[in-house]
Each structure stands twice: as structure tokens, then as C-alpha cells.
Specification:
- This protein is mainly α.
- It has two domains: 86 residues, Orthogonal Bundle (Endonuclease Iii, domain 2), CATH 1.10.1670; 100 residues, Endonuclease III, domain 1 (Orthogonal Bundle).
- Helices cover 57% and strands 0% of the residues.
- The chain is elongated.
Length: 205
């Protein structure tokens, strides 16, 4: 287990999210928008959006209908627009316009669940959280890091098997590995830096 993460660290010492953001607030919004959408599609939408509204007040001034138009290329855009407006209002009313960076406060924001909070806290270096999305779930199972049936169980397993000094970046290593190498249908085992350590390698000739 340790060797897997040592190799990831050697190949990419400081991986970061591929979502574009300029502040904790825009990071929260970008991650919330990324649910069931690709980072590429979110970045295309937020490039213009964040020029128009990069603060909670500016987002409220933009309004839900206009926000929905700005993010209409992203799946579930109406629901996401409603949540972003609601979380922006809450940040203003409860936190004086400053995006909260405690897990409990983040998860109290509309549209921000445990996974979104984990991504934000990890990216900002506040908490060595491991957010389990479809990529992390798949890679964790293929590498034998977890057999958990739910994202929460996989997260709990990863927090045990990932060396403490690697937890801050483990989330990104696993996501990037799943996105570009250990892909869903035809994993690129020939390009995998941990293929010799993978118990699933013989399943993909």
C-alpha cells in the first residue's frame, strides 16, 4: 500500500484540482457545479460566470435565472443554480460574506455534501480529506485498497490504508489516475506506474 502512494508522489508531488477557482468561494461553487459533470465543462461555464460573479453578493445580484443561463451547459443546471444562490445567501447572512472553512459549516450550505466539503478542505490544505467520487471508488477497488460497497465505506478504508503523510494528496492522485490511466472500460495498464502492484491487472489483458 505504501509503495503505491510513494510512486504516485514521485510522479506528481503536488497534484491539484483541475477546476478553476480564484478564492474559497469560487472553489465551493465550482465543486458544487461539478457534481455529475466534467471539470472541463464546469471550467467552460465558470470562465465567464466568475468574471461576472465571484463573490456571494455578486452572485445574488446576478440572480437565479441569469445564473441558470450561465451554467445551462452543465447537467442539472436549474437545481445547481438554485443551490448556488441559496448557499451564497447563507454565506452572507451567517458568515458575513466569508466562505466558512469548517466542515460542519460547509456541509450546512445548500448543495454542499460531504464529498464537496472534502474536496474544498483538501484543496485548500485545511484537512487531509479523501473525497470518493466514481474515479476514486473504481481505483480503490481495482488496487485492492478497499472492498467497500459505498463511498463512505471506501473513504473510511482509504483513511486507514493511506499513509498519514500521503493523505493530503491521495484524493487527487486517485482521481487523476482514474481519469487518465485506470479508466472505466479499458484501463491503460501499460501506462500505469503501479501495474505490478495491482491485483486486478490480469483482468484487463
Amino acid at each position: 500500500m505504501v509503495e503505491i502512494f510513494d510512486r504516485f508522489a514521485h510522479a506528481e508531488p503536488d497534484p491539484r484540482t483541475e477546476l478553476h477557482y480564484t478564492s474559497p468561494y469560487t472553489l465551493v461553487v465550482a465543486v458544487a457545479l461539478s457534481a455529475q459533470a466534467t471539470d472541463v465543462s464546469v471550467n467552460k461555464a465558470t470562465e465567464r460566470l466568475f468574471r461576472r460573479a465571484a463573490t456571494p453578493q455578486a452572485m445574488l445580484d446576478l440572480g437565479e435565472a441569469e445564473l441558470a443561463r450561465e451554467i445551462s451547459s452543465i447537467g442539472l443546471f436549474n437545481t445547481k443554480a438554485r443551490n448556488v444562490i441559496a448557499l451564497s445567501r447563507l454565506i452572507l447572512e451567517r458568515h458575513g460574506g466569508e466562505t466558512p472553512l469548517r466542515r460542519e459549516d460547509l456541509q450546512a450550505l445548500p448543495g454542499v455534501g460531504r464529498k464537496t466539503a472534502s474536496v474544498v478542505l483538501n484543496e485548500l490544505g485545511i484537512e487531509p480529506a479523501i473525497a470518493v467520487d466514481t474515479h476514486v471508488f473504481r481505483v480503490a477497488h481495482r488496487l485492492g485498497l478497499s472492498q467497500g460497497a459505498t463511498p463512505d465505506k471506501v473513504e473510511a478504508d482509504l483513511m486507514v490504508v493511506v499513509p498519514p503523510e500521503r493523505r493530503t494528496r491521495a484524493h487527487h492522485w486517485l482521481i487523476l489516475h482514474g481519469r487518465y490511466v485506470c479508466v472505466a472500460r479499458k484501463p491503460r495498464c501499460g501506462a500505469c506506474i503501479v501495474s505490478d502492484l495491482c491485483p486486478s491487472r490480469d483482468l484487463f489483458p
